[in-house]
Write a structure and sequence with these properties.
The complex is a heterodimer of chains A (537) and B (587).
Chain A lengths: L10 H4 L1 H16 L2 E5 L3 H11 L5 E5 L6 H6 L12 H10 L6 E5 L3 H7 L2 H4 L3 E5 L3 H13 L4 E7 L2 E7 L3 E3 L18 H8 L8 H4 L4 H14 L9 H12 L14 H13 L7 H7 L2 H4 L7 H14 L19 H32 L9 H9 L5 E3 L4 H5 L6 H10 L5 H17 L10 H18 L8 H10 L5 H20 L8 E5 L4 E5 L2
Parallel strand pairs in A: 1-2, 1-4, 2-3, 4-5
Antiparallel strand pairs in A: 5-6, 6-9, 7-8, 9-10
Chain B lengths: L6 H9 L1 E5 L3 H13 L3 E5 L24 H12 L4 E5 L10 H5 L3 E4 L4 H14 L3 E7 L2 E7 L20 H5 L5 H15 L20 H14 L7 H7 L4 H18 L37 H21 L13 H17 L7 H8 L7 H19 L7 E5 L10 E5 L15 E6 L6 H12 L5 E5 L6 E3 L24 E6 L4 E9 L9 E4 L2 H19 L12 H7 L13
Parallel strand pairs in B: 1-2, 1-4, 2-3, 4-5, 9-13
Antiparallel strand pairs in B: 5-6, 6-7, 7-8, 9-14, 10-11, 10-12, 12-13
Helix pairs in contact in B: 2-14, 7-12, 11-12, 12-13
The chains are: A alpha/beta (537), B alpha/beta (587).
Chain lengths: 537, 587
């Protein structure tokens, strides 16, 4: 990442507040991303705004419409004077003003034409974001992008309802930023250097000062050995035994002349950490699943770096690692003198580097075997991969085709939501689908013409029943919702667009940076109740 | 638009006057949303100017606007998009007395887009005083929240105890730091001592009144000092100026002589690792961090710290001189010199005390109370604010919600947690009919000035209080009029016969807020606290009991419970104590 932007501003300053969330490497990934937006609707421009501000590489708007009065009313990036001019062009100009370091472009052509005549146009993007598309073209686009594994984010604002669907064949996440993680300390299978270090220390003979500054990790280790010696070499496993170990540790606290235990913070810490520090070292089940994934087992010259690296980690676990993942190499803060704390730090770091080197050697071999360019995977990548090896994730979303085909649709889930939960927002997904059926039939949205409101309500009910029938679900009576849906008349409210613009952009950033877990796969927002759900459809 | 909003609501929206407090991250988004939802009479107030680090999310601002008024530029940018809207911008603090209850009364609705608790408290009180509904909001990284406050119907902003803003005991900072943050705070104090506004609470030299020292130990240290060489007692600033801000002399005093002096206070080091003085001309060149070439992320070696320290001293000296006599510098996290100064000084001190050192990147966020901020979260929250505003204008308070935005869908697959608004807390010391609190303190050690600044203003959120003793005589001890009671400032409360059980009637005219305080006298509070605010004596007792219980809990290895979802943002956003444990003050 260049230190200075095109606009002459220091990047670290301009992006300071977000670098704290996704780091420099996340920022560089963002800066090399190319985003395609289909339709410069209010929702579309809001999403782009939220991507241009943090600094994506470039964006391209595909839109064949001209600016209309309605657009100006709900879209911040279109002007009254621009009514009648190409919508994509105006939006592109105004959005480009937000960040000089982002390159903007537009194509004045219909999406259906592009899919038909120039499908490769879409496959060069890092992500395609589609807003307010009709069902027919959406399914075509979905099929095309799924084939080439280009992520597609479908977004829609309809009255007080927001909808987002992520479609992608495979997305790999190295840094999933899990919430609560246990430290990787390996007290059950101590690092040899750590063992040696602990053995070199004698709590009984050291000075009082040294005693109260011995890192808790050492204390727990030492008393754990003592425990094991009296329990046939086994570590405490249940609550009762762990409590006994805690009591044993407490007996080690120095006492004053009157026999009252001193205040020794490091011992307090040791007692506090017994529960978590004794968690056995094992490869998480999610990671074991990845080891058995066909992509991992059958590498090809086209295999992504992620799969090469996971194969290398698998090999490590089976050989040098003796059943364990590469060591993370960090230890928590603790009460200790600097000298011994730094020694401990170095022991863990050194072992982690060694593990990483072993993985790196495997990567090198695998890359050679598959005739890939060795420069595709840097030492730094491998280091990050190893450090996060317990948290790797792979997301595979169902395709739109699977969702829309009644034979493969997730009808059990739909049925369960519609029946069990009276108030589930899933009803709005069903209604949106019914609205699309309506549109296909009448070529306008229900309630769009106020004078037809009553008949539209009836027709929408018919569409709803048909849909429910296709899914072979018991009939639902949601007349008030149907009424509400028709009242919206397909209007796109700005404040809903602003909300969905925030959520969708956040998902897009997750995809582009390869950090954090994106939704899988549908998100529905009900603005009247301020509730939302995520479901896999 | 008209389709989805009822005609009545649409009418309300286009005819009402609303106030937006804050034109930052949320404020920019909110202004845009309001304009495009049909609001046409909007006022916006913000005292801030635009900084480069705002540009990644505050989309109404551009590079060329850096340094200009946020509210003014936001107004101009928004008008470009819709010139038919009436927007009034104030480049001012909302806490300025010009904006009294009458100012607030002209609005149908107030929306907060603020970043600090003091202003939130104040706007809360103003809206209660003017009986105007308030939409309150906040974001921190991926987290956010929106809630509605309506006098008499819902909780007010201050109905619920909030995590206290963390402060550190002076002697921890000056004598016995044990965490990186202590060194960072010390380094910021040092900056102010050398270049900024002098504050006796920010002394950086060893503290001989450390309660841990027996009287004798402190005195003997003092004696040793006077014995050795005649040290003239003068302020750090004057001393540094006299040396011409000589880097070696300042470094040697702070990081060698002062540390040696601390070592003479032997009781402090009986159970602690004693600090190790450093010699300016003999510093290690070894960097503790692994190979990372980025200056911001790397841990600097002592040698490098000293070099940076010296260079910054020289530059800051020039800056200070440029201000002329009586000038001073204000520490700013976005000023490289000021930040580098703190990074180097904090790391040298950390090294001396055997505390883990931190990178420039980390120290920036510790010293600057930086909360990560991104466009997406602000967009989401501003969208939610307008939805709540619409319900208020539709007179549907029963439909209003308190919404929390999670970092990712929770275990029930919800990204948003929407909850009903709770009714007012009948014991709230702000919005109840007769606000009351008890303040626990030592009447012989607390001055009138301290009562005004630290208790009434900082802790209890008043702006310009008048205080009279409820003794039948109406003795006024603090007046908001200038020049009336300044002579009381340095006197202790006991001088005015304020004793255990005394009652004080406090009145903030601007906030239209009356509070009765009962004083509970104690000799000493735990954790070196100078005072404690509690709801009433019964709660005080409960709190003391709870404390003693908590102690037992800790020793048996119990882990602290999770904070409730309602307290969540409170702990990260409003108080930004990302690096410290939170302490709840119970009202």
């Amino acid at each position: 990442m260049a230190a200075v932007t095109k606009s002459g501003l220091d990047k670290n300053n301009k992006y300071d507040r977000q670098l704290r969330l996704w780091g420099d490497h996340g920022q560089s990934a963002l800066e090399s991303s190319r985003v395609c937006l289909i339709n410069a609707t209010a929702t579309g421009t809001e999403i782009l705004k939220n991507l241009i501000l943090p600094g994506i590489g470039s964006f391209t708007i595909v839109d064949d419409k001209k600016v209309e009065g309605d657009d100006v009313g709900n879209n911040f990036f279109l002007l009254r004077d621009s009514i009648g001019t190409p919508r994509g062009k105006i939006a592109c100009e105004l959005l480009s003003e937000l960040n000089e370091d982002v390159v903007g472009d537009f194509v004045e052509e219909s999406t259906s034409n592009l899919i038909e005549n120039n499908p490769s146009f879409f496959t060069s993007f890092s992500i395609v974001i589609a807003t307010n598309m009709d069902e027919k073209n959406l399914l075509k686009l979905g099929e095309l992008l799924y084939k080439y594994n280009v992520p597609l984010l479908v977004c829609r604002c309809y009255g007080f309802i927001g909808y987002i669907r992520l479609v992608l064949k495979e997305h790999t996440v190295i840094e999933s930023h899990p919430d609560n993680t246990l430290e990787d300390l390996r007290l059950d299978r101590p690092i040899p250097a750590f063992q040696q270090f602990c053995d070199s220390l004698d709590l009984c003979t050291m000075t009082k000062k040294d005693h109260s500054h011995t890192p808790w990790l050492v204390i727990v280790y030492k008393y754990l050995q003592q425990w094991k010696n009296t329990h046939n070499g086994a570590a405490p496993i249940n609550y009762k035994e762990k409590t006994q170990l805690k009591e044993l540790i407490k007996t080690g606290i120095l006492r004053n002349e009157e026999g009252v235990p001193d205040q020794e913070e490091n011992f307090d810490e040791a007692v506090k950490h017994v529960n978590t520090a004794l968690a056995p070292t094992k490869v998480p089940s999610e990671i074991l699943k990845l080891f058995d994934d066909p992509e991992c087992l059958n590498l090809t010259p086209q295999s992504k770096a992620f799969w090469i690296m996971i194969r290398a980690v698998k090999q490590f676990v089976e050989t040098d690692g003796q059943g364990a993942l590469p060591l993370r190499g960090t230890i928590p803060d603790m009460t200790a003198d600097s000298e011994r704390y730094i020694k401990l730090q170095n022991i863990y770091r050194h072992q982690a580097n060694q593990d990483c080197q072993s993985v790196s050697n495997s990567v090198q071999r695998l890359v050679e075997e598959q005739c890939q360019n060795p420069e595709n995977i840097s030492e730094k990548d491998i280091h990050t991969f190893c450090r996060n090896s317990a948290f790797l994730r792979v997301i595979r979303c169902r395709s739109l085709e699977e969702e829309y085909n009644p034979q493969t649709a997730n009808t059990p889930l739909l049925g369960q939501h519609l029946e069990d939960e009276e108030e589930s927002d899933i009803i709005f997904y069903v209604l949106l689908r019914a609205v699309d059926k309506f549109y296909e039939k009448f070529n306008h949205y229900p309630g769009f013409y106020t004078q037809q409101l009553e008949s539209d309500v009836q027709e929408l009910k018919v569409c709803l029943s048909k849909l429910i029938q296709e899914w072979s679900l018991p009939p639902v009576s949601k007349d008030d919702y149907v009424q509400e849906m028709c009242r919206y008349g397909a209007s796109e409210l700005h404040t809903i667009a602003a909300f969905i613009g925030g959520i969708a952009a956040q998902e897009a950033i997750k995809i582009m940076t390869g950090q954090f877990l994106p939704i899988d796969n549908t998100y529905i927002y009900n603005a009247m109740k301020q509730t939302s759900i995520t479901v896999e459809l | 638009m008209k389709n989805s909003l009822s005609p009545n609501l649409y009418n309300n929206v286009s005819n009402c006057k609303v106030l937006v407090v804050g034109a930052g991250g949320i404020g920019c988004e909110l202004l845009k949303n309001l304009v495009l939802t049909g609001f046409s009479d909007i006022q916006v107030i913000d005292l801030d100017t635009i900084d480069v680090s705002n540009l990644n999310r505050q989309f109404l601002f551009r590079k060329e606007h850096v340094g200009k008024s946020k509210s003014q530029v936001a107004k101009e940018s928004a008008l470009k998009f819709n010139p038919n809207v009436n927007i009034v911008a104030y480049h001012d603090s909302v806490m300025n007395p010009d904006y009294g209850a009458d100012f607030f009364k002209q609005f149908k609705l107030v929306m907060n887009a603020l970043d600090n608790r003091a202003a939130r408290n104040h706007v809360n009180r103003m809206c209660l005083a003017a009986d105007v509904p308030l939409v309150e909001s906040g974001t921190a990284g991926y987290l956010g929240q929106v809630t509605v406050i309506k006098k008499g119907l819902t909780e007010c902003y201050e109905c619920r105890p909030k995590a206290a803003q963390k402060t550190f005991p002076g002697c921890t900072i000056r004598n016995t730091p044990s965490e990186p943050i202590h060194c960072v705070v010390w380094a910021k104090h040092l900056f102010n001592q050398l270049f900024g506004e002098e504050d006796p609470d920010q002394d950086v030299s060893p503290d001989t009144e450390d309660p841990e020292l027996t009287a004798a130990a402190g005195e003997s240290a003092l004696e040793k000092e006077t014995e050795g060489k005649e040290i003239e007692r003068k302020s750090t600033r004057v001393w540094a100026m006299d040396t011409g801000y000589d880097a070696e002399k300042i470094f040697s005093k702070l990081f060698r002589d002062d540390i040696k002096y601390l070592l003479t206070m032997e009781t402090l080091w009986k159970k602690r690792r004693p600090p190790e003085p450093l010699d300016y001309n003999n510093l290690s060149d070894e960097s503790p961090s692994s190979t990372n070439d980025m200056r911001d992320q790397r841990i600097w070696s002592m040698k490098e710290c000293a070099d940076v320290f010296s260079k910054c001293l020289a530059k800051l000296k020039t800056d200070l001189a440029a201000q002329g006599d009586g000038g001073m510098l204000v520490w700013d996290k976005d000023d490289d010199k000021a930040l580098d100064f703190v990074v180097s000084a904090a790391n040298v001190r950390a090294n001396i005390f055997g505390i883990s050192q931190k990178s420039r990147f980390d120290i920036k966020s510790m010293a600057g109370n930086i909360i990560p901020a991104i466009a997406t979260t602000n967009a989401i929250i501003a969208g939610l604010i307008v939805m709540e505003a619409l319900k208020i204008l539709d007179n549907k308070f029963d439909k209003c919600t308190a919404v929390y935005l999670n970092r990712k869908p929770n275990f029930r697959k919800k990204l948003l947690d929407a909850g009903r608004l709770d009714p007012p807390n009948p014991k709230c010391y702000v919005c109840s009919a007769k606000p009351e609190v008890t303040v626990v303190l030592n009447t012989q050690k607390i001055t009138i000035k301290f009562l005004e600044d630290k208790i009434l203003k900082s802790e209890l959120g008043m702006v310009a209080p008048d205080v009279e003793i409820d003794n039948g005589l109406g003795t006024i001890i603090i007046s908001s009029e200038e020049g009336e009671t300044e002579q009381n400032n340095d006197k202790f409360l006991s001088k005015f016969n304020i004793i255990n059980g005394s009652r004080l009637k406090c009145d903030d005219f601007l906030q239209n807020y009356n509070l009765n305080i009962t004083i509970a006298h104690v000799e000493k509070l735990e954790d070196e606290k100078e005072f404690m605010v509690v709801g009433d004596m019964a709660e005080l007792q409960a709190k003391l009991d709870e404390n003693s219980k908590k102690k037992e809990g800790e020793s048996s290895g119990a882990t602290p419970g999770n904070t409730s979802s309602k307290g969540r943002i409170g702990s990260v956003n409003y108080h930004s104590n990302l690096y410290t444990k939170q302490i709840l003050v119970i009202f």
